[in-house]
Design brief:
Bound molecules: adenosine-5'-triphosphate, magnesium ion
Helix content: 25-40%
CATH architecture of the largest domain: 3-Layer(aba) Sandwich
CATH class of the largest domain: Alpha Beta
Radius of gyration: 31 Å
Distance between the termini: 58 Å
Structural class: alpha/beta
Number of domains: 3
Length: about 575
């Protein structure tokens, strides 16, 4: 169980939501109980924005000794699916949270919501209206233009009750009638101008099938579902702030066991990322990504496959905090959180992504020896691993330059480097193919430099990684990068124009043999290269490694170009 937020309660550093909950508990509101809920609509996979809400809803319940419910907000039949219901539960558990009681569904409350609507009509607080959708909009007015009352507003309750029952019995076509709350057509808040609370929709529902042909609107279903469950604090995102008067009004009219307090916070927006489920769905449908769990997706399923840890995501949520202000969080902060987590926990291995063979001419053919290397220098208890070495090795092409500038401290003809954890190596010559490209290096090593130390104390600046050709495992590397190359793709005319064409590059290379048989989900730091996670597509013959994140932020340069030289 995650414990990052433990101890947050009661301290001076409470965010504003926790401060409200804290004050309610201390004043004995709701008998000092805290019950929250996380209410996803099962019309897509959960994303990193949802993770912020989950950490808040479940975190607060835990910190205040309360309960948190998981409720599928499934009142819109046309977009919902069982696949999403299952994925949502899996992702919440993966993130480290468990809901109290069984999984709940707003659709289970349909019969009670219907009765609540009937009670409103009886009390003269709701009426069936026959305005068309266009008329409805026109009568409603605008924020600076008062609304007009519907001709049906004073329909007798008995008549509305009869029509509402017949709506339920399927007598009318979609759009023929809606049930409206009778509040105030002159309210400055447009949501209070007799909002629709039930509409006819002849679509089968993923759980109730064809039982219902009328469905409650979100504003009606949500507050009453909260009340039915005894939710004390209904935490939601800022766009619901203007709905709060309606939330309170509905609850106030009806005989419900509890009056939840709605608290709104600013949703998470992340740079270089989209968070709208509609847009994410579009990427999936148009096969611009491989699915909801494509490692480039900001979904929890995608991030899990990419190699993110639940702890890093919880830590990120805690770091960004909770405010009332809309802002754009830098995705570099999320990447920083995953780097610092993986740095502490992931075993180091060497992997060569773009292999270039180097033959060590003074190393005897057929001989093998093993060098010891730390599994994780950040964690001495992880011990050492043994890395085999032999006459032919692979190094990364990027670590060799034929005509390097002075500042290049890696391998070049006539230059010496340290092979990580092994020895010192000098390049003597290159071998070319018919096109003149370098395909192999001829090198010599210093037999007295075992462990990488120069016997005479001479300075060797560069250290590169390598794998022994005879022992290496062939591997596929999926080099993921940000899916978008615009800071705010959702603001673009078409967000798909901002897709980063280099968001996935696939390479064939080699890894050291210690990773043999690593299960999907295993995470490693490939030394000097990045953090990687074994993909479920791996086979015994060909392990597949997803790059979670590079070792350093390579986008920093892009965002902040180096200052030009003074002229
Ligand atoms: P979309 O607008 O893309 O359809 P949504 O907000 O409708 O997303 P829901 O399934 O209704 O998605 O969200 C469940 C809960 O998660 C809600 O309480 C919602 O406020 C919260 N949530 C959704 N997106 C974010 C976000 N980016 N940051 C924080 N909380 C979020
Ligand atoms: Mg929603």
């Amino acid at each position: 169980m995650p414990s990052e937020n433990n101890g947050a309660r009661g301290g001076p550093g409470l965010d504003f939501v926790r401060a409200i909950v804290d004050a309610d508990v201390k004043s004995g509101r709701n008998g000092g109980k805290v019950v929250t809920r996380f209410p996803p609509e099962p019309n897509g996979y959960l994303h990193i924005g949802h993770a912020k809400a989950i950490c808040l809803d479940f975190g607060i319940a835990r910190e205040f000794g309360g309960r948190c419910h998981l409720r599928m907000d499934d009142t819109n039949p046309s977009k919902e699916d069982e696949e999403y219901v299952n994925a949502i539960q899996e992702d919440i558990r993966w993130l480290g949270f468990e809901w109290d009681g069984s999984l709940l569904y707003a659709s289970d409350y349909f019969p009670r919501l219907y009765e609540f609507a009937v009670a409103l009509i009886r009390a003269g607080k709701a009426y069936v209206c026959d305005l068309s959708q266009e008329e409805f909009k026109e009568y409603r007015g605008a924020p600076n233009k008062p609304g007009r009352e519907s001709p049906c507003r004073n329909r007798p309750a008995g008549e509305s009750l009869d029509l509402f029952r017949r709506m339920k019995d399927g007598e009318f076509e979609e759009g023929r009638y809606v049930l409206r709350a009778k509040i105030d057509m002159n309210s400055p808040n447009i949501h209070m101008r007799d909002p629709a609370i039930y509409r006819i929709k002849k679509a089968p529902h993923h759980r109730t099938g064809a039982a219902w042909v009328i469905y409650p609107m979100y504003d009606f279903a949500h507050c009453l579902s909260d009340a039915i469950e005894g939710i004390t604090h209904s935490i939601c995102t800022l766009e619901f702030e203007v709905h709060r008067p309606l939330y309170d009004w509905i609850i106030g009219q009806l005989d419900v066991p509890c009056h939840p307090r709605q608290i709104e916070f600013a949703r998470l927006n992340l740079s270089y990322t989209i968070m709208s489920k509609r847009m994410l769905q579009q990427l999936v449908n148009e096969k611009l990504v491989s699915g909801w769990d494509d490692p480039r997706m900001p979904t929890l399923a995608g991030m899990r496959r990419r190699g993110y840890t639940p702890g890093a995501i919880r830590n990120f949520s805690r770091t960004i905090g909770v405010t009332k202000f809309e802002s754009l969080t830098d995705v570099a902060l999320l990447e920083h959180c995953i780097r610092s987590d993986l740095n502490k926990t992931s075993p180091r291995v060497m992997g060569v992504i773009r292999p270039l063979k180097a033959v060590i001419e003074n190393y005897p053919e057929g001989r093998t020896e093993n060098f010891e290397a730390a599994v994780n220098p950040e964690d001495p208890s992880a011990g050492n691993r043994s890395v085999p070495f032999s006459r032919e090795i692979y190094i990364d092409r990027d670590d060799f330059m034929e005509n390097p500038p002075k500042s290049f401290f890696r391998l070049a003809p006539g230059r010496e480097v340290r092979l990580r954890s092994a020895c010192l190596l000098t390049c003597r010559d290159v071998v070319r193919n018919g096109r003149g490209e370098v395909v192999e290096l001829r090198c010599v090593y210093d037999p007295d430099s075992r462990g990488g130390h120069a016997p005479d104390g001479r300075k060797v600046k560069g250290t590169i990684h390598w794998v022994s050709a005879a022992h290496a495992l062939e591997a596929e590397f999926r080099l993921y990068d940000r899916l978008f190359n615009a800071e705010n793709p959702a603001a673009a005319e078409d967000f798909k124009d901002c897709l980063n064409p280099a968001s996935l590059q696939v390479a064939r290379g080699f890894v050291e043999p210690s990773v043999r048989g690593a299960a999907p989900g295993s995470r490693f730091q490939m030394e000097r290269t990045g953090y990687f996670c074994v993909d479920p597509d791996s086979t015994a013959e060909l392990p597949v490694f997803n790059r979670t994140v590079t070792l350093k932020d390579t986008w920093e340069k892009v965002r902040k170009p180096a200052p030009s030289a003074p002229g």
